[in-house]
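Batch job 17 of 40 flagged for manual review because the log was empty.
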Amino acid sequence: MKFTANQIAEILEGEICGNENVEVHKLSKIEEGEVGSLTFLSNPKYTNYIYSTKASIAIVNKDFVPEKEIFTTLIKVEDAYKSFSKLLEFYNQVKLSKTGIDPNVYISDSASYGENLYLGAFSYISSNVKIGNNVKIYPNTYIGENVKIGDNTIIYAGAKIYSETEIGNNCIINSGAIIGADGFGFAPNSEGAYSKIPQIGNVVIEDNVDIGAATTIDRATLGSTIIRKGVKLDNQIQIAHNVEIGENTVIAAQTGIAGSTKIGKNCEMGGQVGIVGHITIGNNVRVQAQTGIARNVKDNEVLQGTPAIGYSDFNKSYVYFKKLPDLVATINSLKKELKALKNENE
């Protein structure tokens, strides 16, 4: 896929300084630019690279004035970083503009789908599935019975969407994600073994949700596990049965959320956070990486540590924790002195 400087300038509404017909077919960092690549300069500390880069085109801010000769074609814009991001989005849209159904797929006669469907090889579409417009389902994907998928949603290769799951518009589900598997529900019986509790609920994913690779979201025992609109989930996250995550909450990799916990809106959670079941976490809560939460959390709290405490309290405590060996040595020394004094008095 090739683009000329003139085409890129039209997309970004920029001004060309150099050869408007020069072509690029890939993107690069400015310090690693090669002939045929497009790069950008927004951080002043990388300015020296603009004079040595071999990239064919560089996007720069309008106020950039070269201090010596430049060999790359410049496209001047109001904000180079934002313009490069816009270009990445445009490039991604072009790259993902796939349509058509591969002959090596299975589609149930009772399934229905809208316009411009892309369905990759060896995908399986079960009975009564409903798929919206402009949906892209990549190869080796399984879509279970009665699943609903909204418009403009992308499901990447190898994802598994179990029965009854509902997925909204403009969602992205990455490779290896499993949506709607049974929740971890077992009850001990009279013989000391565990009997499985049927999980007959579903998963509901609202609009504009991103789900990372190898993330798992379990179906509810009864009712629904719910991921509200705008939620962004990183890779390798485990979300248990009947969990609800509020809109626009962001969660980093390897976090685990136990069953029936409710998380509010606009929360931010670092990686490897552990959350027990049956608690409520308020809105606008921020949780540092590797925190363990075992209690209800009020709106706007900032937490760190296991068990979780306030972020500022954790930092104060950590100052003493680092000094713990010295404090122990001091205590042992004082104990010896007290023992010696005691022996003298006796």
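Reviewer: the log was empty due to a logging misconfiguration, but the result itself is present. The chain has a mean pLDDT of 93. Unflagging and moving on to job 18.
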